[in-house]
Design goal:
about 45% helix; Rossmann fold; seven-stranded parallel β-sheet; two-stranded parallel sheet; 9 strands; KR_dom
Length: about 240
């Protein structure tokens, strides 16, 4: 008999979060979308047939409360740390430190808070479980003006390895998927096919174009699944070969 999992996806109201959710729902898993935008996550969950959870991942008390509330109903088996912001841009000589802190709070601290709470939750349940963090190849390949975001994702890769080595003894695997630019509906509006901006990004990618959401979700599902049972501490690039250039 197949045992279906409960999968918690942060940043669930966004395009990548919804794409990942569809992958797990199609596999028969129970999916909970978490997002700090209550209206958006409720609409996304309704559209997908998932459950909605309003949650600020930087609020450790709220996160702990959420996991405690989920525990009596079987708890969470898989955590997908997809929430992140890419709204802060600026050169190293110009970026406001407060703006930099805002992106670190969500992308790094929020990821840590979720991993910590999930690990405590799983250890209390006897161990096991998997985490997949959404990182970025930007953590390894800098782009001028995007250093705040990219350094936050380099930290996500480091937190992934840190958690993986410490949680392995509890049977908890922790990995990451590191996309290049992903054509979410929002990004596709800003960089439609044929536009100079799209052409400029595509020229950096050996496979010829930016990733689709459908290119990212299967990698996430694989790392969260039994086929990756002996993989932990890895950050898997899904970038069309961009890191080769």
């Amino acid at each position: 008999m197949t045992t279906h999992r409960t999968v918690l996806i942060t940043g669930g109201a966004g395009g990548i979060g919804q794409g990942i959710a569809r992958e797990f729902i199609d596999a028969g898993d129970r999916v909970i979308l978490a997002d700090r935008d209550a209206a958006a996550v409720s609409a996304a969950a309704t559209g997908l047939g998932a459950e909605a959870l309003t949650l600020d991942i930087t609020d450790a008390d709220a996160v702990a409360t959420a996991f405690a509330a989920l525990a009596p109903n079987g708890g969470v088996d898989v955590l997908i740390n997809n929430a992140g912001i890419l709204s802060v841009h600026g050169a190293v000589t110009e970026l406001d430190p407060a703006a930099y802190r805002s992106i670190l709070d969500v992308n790094v601290l929020g990821t840590f808070v979720m991993i910590q709470a999930f690990a405590r939750h799983r250890i209390a349940a006897g161990g096991g479980g998997t985490v997949v963090n959404i990182s970025s190849i930007g953590g390894r390949q800098p782009t001028p003006g995007m250093g705040a975001y990219e350094s936050s994702k380099a930290a996500v890769d480091s937190v992934t390895r840190w958690a993986a080595i410490e949680l392995a003894s509890h049977g908890i695997r922790v990995n990451a998927v590191a996309p290049g630019p992903v054509l979410t509906p929002m990004l596709e509006q800003g960089m439609p096919a044929g536009s100079p901006a799209r052409a400029a990004w595509s020229s950096r990618i050996p496979l010829g174009d930016l990733a689709r959401v459908a290119d990212i979700a299967p990698a996430v599902a694989y790392l969260a699944g039994p086929g990756a049972a002996h993989i932990t501490g890895v950050s898997l690039p899904v970038d069309g070969g961009q890191l080769l250039t």
